TrEMBL record:
InterPro entries: Cation_efflux, Cation_efflux_CTD, Cation_efflux_CTD_sf, Cation_efflux_TM, Cation_efflux_TMD_sf, CDF/SLC30A. Belongs to the cation diffusion facilitator (CDF) transporter (TC 2.A.4) family. SLC30A subfamily. This is Cation diffusion facilitator family transporter. Gene3D superfamilies: Cation efflux protein transmembrane domain. Keywords: Ion transport, Membrane, Transmembrane, Transmembrane helix, Transport. Residues 223-289 form the Cation efflux protein cytoplasmic domain. The keyword Ion transport applies.
Length: 300
């Protein structure tokens, strides 16, 4: 049996975009208190729901930022053979839970307001909503660059997307209340925001569960990988192929290669193929000769 190993990239995707998370966290955290006070004083459910989004942003961005630190730290126990990279996926899962909780709170609060006619301060709503929109747009522009590479950053990005929509909703609600004189628009907009947040949370949740369930990486077809390995010169058969994502930007593979003659050249070609063609960050390959009677080390 031989092992072929391709080494992880110098920095995982989340770590490369840590500075984006840090700046966004500072911006959002600084504005959260202002919006919360304004929401309480104006009695605006839309503004309070947006403040709830801001609180969720602070928690999500903070967790994402902490996760990138944990993922990068060296293992001192000798037991974390895969490192601590999964911390970023758990942070993404936390983002999902926070978004679901916020959306449920908004819906419950909106239902509770039905039939009542609260005095809503539309001017405060408009001003605070506009400031929040500016801050959210800046955070969005910062996080967008890393959302396509890191599930951790994507979780934070989607949370800020939801909050940006919340800020827009606050502004729209303020305008409608001013024009129509009807406070019900505050509740309607809040319900719409809650529904949107819930849908985005469920979509991200599916991606998180796919990683934790060790599904094949998104966009990677196991049969295609197997066919490519089988086409390597000297390989007769490929079996026990496993593909999964450790964390964003770090896909892992294991496989057994049946070869005519055991050769380091076959191993090198197969490892290079997985790295260059499929972006596999780490591959472990077991090589067996075609005259072997039994596959070594396979129980399932």
């Amino acid at each position: 049996m031989s092992g072929g190993h391709s080494h992880p990239p110098p920095g995982h995707a989340g770590g490369r975009h840590r500075w984006r998370l840090a700046v966004s966290f500072g911006l959002v955290a600084s504005f959260f208190g202002v919006e919360l006070v304004a929401g309480i004083m104006s009695q605006s459910l839309a503004l309070l729901s947006d403040a709830g989004h801001m609180a969720a942003d602070v928690v999500t961005l903070g967790a994402a930022l902490l996760a990138t630190r944990i993922a990068a730290r060296p293992d001192t126990t000798g037991r974390r053979t895969f490192g601590s990279y999964r911390a970023e996926i758990f942070a993404s899962g936390l983002a999902v839970l926070v978004m679901i909780a916020v959306s449920i709170y908004i819906v419950i609060a909106a239902i509770g307001r039905m039939g009542s006619t609260p005095e809503v301060g539309s001017t405060a709503m408009f001003v605070v909503g506009a400031i929040g929109l500016v801050i959210n747009v800046i955070a969005l522009l910062l996080l967008r660059g890393g959302a396509g590479e890191s599930l951790n950053v994507k979780g934070a990005y989607l949370e800020v997307v939801a909050d940006t929509l919340g800020s827009i909703g606050v502004i729209v609600a303020a305008v409608l209340i001013t024009v129509t004189g009807e406070a019900v628009w505050d509740t309607v907009i809040a319900l719409a925001i809650g529904a949107f947040v819930l849908l985005r949370a469920l979509r991200l949740g599916r991606e998180v569960l796919a990683v934790l369930g060790q599904h094949a990486p998104a966009g990677m077809v196991p049969d295609t990988v197997m066919e490519a390995l089988t086409a390597v010169d000297g390989v007769e058969e490929v079996h026990d192929l496993h593909l999964w994502t450790l964390t964003s930007g770090m896909d892992v593979a294991t496989a057994h290669l049946v070869v005519r003659d055991e050769s380091d050249e076959v191993l090198a070609q197969a490892t290079a193929l997985l790295r260059d063609q499929f972006g596999i960050a780490h591959a472990t390959l077991q090589v067996e000769t075609s005259d072997s009677k039994h596959c070594q080390g396979v129980d399932w």
